[in-house]
Write a structure and sequence with these properties.
This protein is an alpha/beta fold. It is 29% helix and 21% strand. The strands form 6 sheets. A 9-stranded mixed beta sheet has the order 11-10-12-13-9-16-17-18-19, with helices on both faces. Strand 12, helix 7 and strand 13 form a beta-alpha-beta unit. Helix 14 crosses helix 17. The longest helix has 20 residues. It is elongated and about 95 Å long. The relative contact order is 0.06.
């Protein structure tokens, strides 16, 4: 199944000098032609996706350039012109006196059917921002979206066409936009004003804009979105992370601001006091990164994606591909690693390091294809203290009373990235293969750690380890232990036993209080478990999910939570109640619900306390 393509190529060729016209006619792959470049004193060339072809052995002269200029429309203040009722764009290069010394003739095409990859999102009425490198097909996709919404969805669509690139040159729009209306922009600097005028004067349900590039246009886009109008636009930038660090356009996805936290809040989040946060709700609900005509990356929830990027956490995205022969669209969910951002107003460096969080996605021995599509992580290998000491290393540094480890050594973690070798799954196949993928991943359990409690309640330590489900062996003397756990007051006095443990390079874990919560916090840091302040923390960190289950009982509980979530999302249920579980499992279930944007609460009393999940 091929897309129907309309390019009106002959209309452009008739405006070219005869020698160049004849040279293009002789090309066998004219359908893939992107641009024809004519620079004064140089040989004319035709550009294709895979390279360039020289069209003539005679250099371009002023007469050749004037031949073209006389047969096309007038140039605007952006040095762009067109041919009436076609989609071609001719851009001029000028010398200091204003004379044309070069032309770039880009072939414009209306590709019917190019909307297939995101048709479901467009028809849901969400505002969509399309990103991609120049020439990848953003404007072509934009034009087809306008046609489908106007002709097939019967919506009132207004196209703000600054350079006449969407609907072509001339006063009569190109049929490629269907019944959508077109507003031309006299000067490029006035695009933001025409955007607002379109909303105020013509009652559109949808506004289509190409190339949002200034702060005023970004502000106008926010104004339009706040008035309840669906906004479809393109912007400069290859990806969402690129756009986020663009100070002019970052407001389209919520913007970035530096926030100074109080001491208590910084301790609770385990971060520095100055962090980066999203400044406002995003203007666009969905961001589409266009890789090619047949491949897109879709960020369904821009707010959540931006928040995770700023925290240095991996994000979930959809990779959508379309088979060029059959037209079949495949969807697979992938995990993309967190990014490094400049700390505006607060120094520089890696954001992930500033936030103090670890990156939970690691590569297993079988490669990325063994990992679950929704972002399942494998256990990080925890070596025993004896093997580490043989290499001259200690197992873990001393943990501070706040629970943070300033010099915590971690093995380098490789983030799950987009893989060209990963099999493409359709949206129906994803859910069907999750159970199979769950069985395919065989997480390696962490190695037991022998801990000697010095001044710490032994029963509470056993309870903390039991509730977290971590392999801790509590010894009766420090000589048999890999680590010593003690209280801050004892550590300050430096008793002889602690001095001996330090001399033998044993790990010393320092607690602020002799409570189960403090012990759980310390053990969670040692075993790299997901942490939250309590088991109600549905909005806490969602960077680690089901991949941290190390026993069959925990895995069954998380599979039960996933099944309940799928029933809520697909069967129209309003709430689902899970079986009773311990505090650690409930914490994982809350995080799983949060990943799917669902609310969750714990109900009942121990040992029958359980999680109930609600639709947002």
């Amino acid at each position: 199944m091929h897309n129907a393509i309309t390019d009106d190529l002959e209309a452009l060729l008739e405006a070219l000098p005869p020698s160049i016209h004849e040279a293009v006619d002789r090309l066998e792959n004219r359908g893939e032609l992107l641009e024809i470049v004519m620079d004064l004193g140089r040989l004319p060339e035709a550009r294709f996706p895979d390279g360039e072809v020289i069209l003539s052995d005679q250099p371009i002269t002023y007469a050749d350039l004037e031949y073209v200029v006389e047969r096309i429309g007038e140039f605007g203040d952006d040095n762009r012109a067109g041919i009436e009722r076609t989609l071609h764009r001719i851009s001029a290069l000028r010398n200091r006196k204003g004379r044309v010394v070069g032309l770039t003739c880009r072939i414009g095409r209306a590709v019917l059917g190019s909307i297939a990859l995101i048709r479901d999102i467009v028809e849901q009425g969400q505002s969509i921002l399309i990103l991609g490198r120049p020439g990848v097909g953003k404007t072509t996709l934009l034009r087809e979206i306008a046609r489908v919404l106007a002709d097939e969805a019967n919506k009132r669509v207004v196209v703000v066409d600054t350079s006449n690139e969407i609907a072509g040159d001339g006063d009569i729009p190109h049929p490629g936009i269907g019944r959508a209306r077109r507003m031309q922009v006299a000067h490029t600097s006035m695009q933001h004003a025409v955007m607002i005028e379109a909303v105020e004067n013509h009652m559109p349900q949808v506004i289509v804009i190409d190339e949002i590039g200034t702060e005023l246009e970004a502000q106008a886009a926010r104004t339009i979105a706040e008035r309840g109008v669906q906004l479809i636009a393109t912007a400069h930038g290859n990806s969402l992370s690129n756009l986020l660090v663009n100070p002019t356009l970052s407001d389209l996805v919520g913007g970035i601001q530096t926030v100074t936290l109080g001491d208590e809040e910084a301790r609770r989040r385990h971060t520095q006091k100055s962090i980066l946060e999203r400044k406002a709700p995003p203007t666009f609900d969905v961001v589409v990164e266009q890789q090619s005509w047949q491949e897109l990356i879709v960020h369904r929830d821009v707010a959540e994606t931006v928040d995770n990027l700023l925290r240095g956490q991996p994000v979930i995205a959809e990779v959508r591909t379309r088979d060029e022969e059959t037209g079949r669209v495949s969807v697979r969910r992938v995990t993309i690693g967190g990014m490094e951002l400049p700390a505006w107003g607060g120094g520089s460096g890696s954001l992930a390091g500033r936030q103090g969080g670890y990156l939970p996605f690691e590569r297993s021995a079988g490669g990325w294809n063994n990992l679950r599509q929704i972002g399942q992580a494998t256990w990080r290998d925890v070596a025993t203290a004896d093997s580490l000491r043989r290499n001259g290393q200690s197992l873990l540094p001393a943990l501070a009373p706040s629970g943070l480890a300033a010099n915590l050594r971690r093995s380098p973690s490789g983030l799950m990235t987009l893989s060209n070798t990963a099999p493409a799954l359709t949206s129906e196949e994803i859910l069907a293969t999750e159970e199979e993928a769950q069985r395919a991943v065989a997480p390696s359990p962490p190695q037991p750690i022998r801990i000697y409690p010095f001044g710490v309640n032994r029963d509470r330590l056993e309870q903390a380890a039991r509730q977290l489900g971590v392999p801790v062996i509590i010894t009766k003397n420090e000589h048999e232990a890999n680590a010593v756990i003690t209280l801050k007051n004892y550590y300050r006095r430096q008793p002889e036993r602690l001095q001996q443990a330090a001399d033998h390079q044993k790990t010393i874990i320092i607690l602020k209080n002799n409570t189960v919560a403090q012990m759980q916090h310390a053990l969670a840091r040692i075993f790299a478990l997901p942490e939250e302040e309590d088991d109600e923390g549905g909005s806490g960190s969602s960077g680690s999910l089901t991949g941290l289950a190390q026993d069959e009982e925990t895995r069954r509980a998380l599979l039960e939570a996933e099944d309940a979530i799928h029933r809520l999302l697909n069967n129209g249920l309003t709430a689902a109640e899970l079986a009773p579980a311990n505090a650690y499992v409930r914490r994982l279930q809350h995080q799983l619900a949060s990943r799917y944007n669902l609310f969750s609460r714990s109900r009942g009393k121990e040992p029958n306390r359980r999680v109930k999940i609600f639709r947002s």
